[in-house]
Amino acid sequence: MLTHGILNAQLAADLAGLRHKDRFVISDCGLPDPPGIEVVDLALVFGVPRFEDVLDALKDNLTLESALMACEVEGHAPERWVRDRFDLPVSFVPHDGPHGFKAAVEGVKFIVRTGETTSFANVIFQCGVPF
Fold first, then answer.
1. pLDDT digits (tens, 9 = 90+) for 68-95
2. Which of the following is catalytic: 4, 20, 76, 99?
3. May I ask the CATH class of domain 20-127?
4. Phi-psi region of 13 (alpha: psi -120 to 50; beta: other; left: phi over 0)
């Protein structure tokens, strides 16, 4: 049995399968998931686990090169949560629309659904390489 790190078997396997340039989502509990995209559903009740909790659990386990968020979070808590934990460029697009955040979710490897209820607390991370 594991004694540290990611204990959720599905999430641990998905993280281990990520390669350079792969993208995945950490989402609030309301982001729609497109058909065919795997969802690692960690949500238990509203607010559990928090978006921040999942970011904290992942930050020491991944090499990331960029993040994409909805422009609706610029200057608000979700942007700060990501920037406080990851030293990487963050880009912004509108939440909706043909070139928006929800459209960008198409083609990600998986979505990690949290219990977060803060509006627009969603991020698409793109993986980097540790060398």
1. 999 999 999 999 999 999 999 999 999 9
2. 20
3. alpha beta
4. alpha
Q: Find out whether 101 and 124 touch, Cβ atoms under 8 Å.
A: yes
Per-residue pLDDT, 26: 98
Q: Cα separation of 69 and 54, whole Å?
A: 16
Strands in 110-113's sheet, in edge-to-edge order, are 38-41, 110-113, 23-27, 123-127, 64-70, 90-93
pTM: 0.96
Burial of 40 (0-12, 13-18, 19+ CB in 10 A): buried
Which helix (H) or strand (E) segment is 64 a member of? strand 64-70
Residue 70's identity, in one-letter code, is A
Comparing CA positions, the residue from 39, 79, 63 lying closest to residue 128 is 63
Q: Is 20 a catalytic residue?
A: yes
Percent of the chain with pLDDT over 90: 93
